[in-house]
Amino acid sequence: MAVQPAAAAPASSAADRAASSYAALKKYFGTSNGLLLEQYPNATTNNPYSYVWPYSQATIGALNLAGIPGRGYAYDAEAKARIAGYAPYWERGHHPARLRLVRTTAARPGR
Predict the structure, then answer these.
(1) CA–CA distance, 66 with 80 (Å, rounded to integer)
(2) Could you say which of 44, 68, 93, 103 is the most buried, measured as most Cβ atoms within 10 Å of its Cβ?
(3) How far apart are CA 90 and CA 103, in angstroms?
(4) How many Å apart are CA 31 and CA 38, to the nearest integer?
(5) What does the DSSP 8-state code read for residue 47?
(6) Which range is least confidently modeled, 40-44, 83-87, 90-94?
(7) What sign has the CA pseudo-torsion 31, 97, 65, 70?
């Protein structure tokens, strides 16, 4: 008897898992100014905000969620906010401008 492959999970279940994972990221690592904590729980000895690499991965997650057919529109503003959230990481005094590895002040994104 030939073994039949398991039925593929519905596409919506992958989208649901992605949305749940992103919601957990925001719940535990999100901050009031749109940046992310370095660790959870965030001790006073930690950097107050994440390094740019983890932030970039959250940005990619938001962009991927925004691209889900039929439901991505719900994440459009989130994706735009994540992109704007790079602003406090930029070191404008360098030519060319570059990203800092870590944001250490509470500057608001886009300012």
Answers:
(1) 10
(2) 103
(3) 9
(4) 11
(5) -
(6) 90-94
(7) positive
For range 69-82, the mean pLDDT: 93
Query: What tokens appear for 39 in the block?
Result: 């660790």
Q: Which two tokens stand for residue 4?
A: 């039949």
Polymer length in residues for the chain: 111
Q: Tokens for 73, please give them.
A: 């529109």
CB 88 within 8 A of CB 109: yes
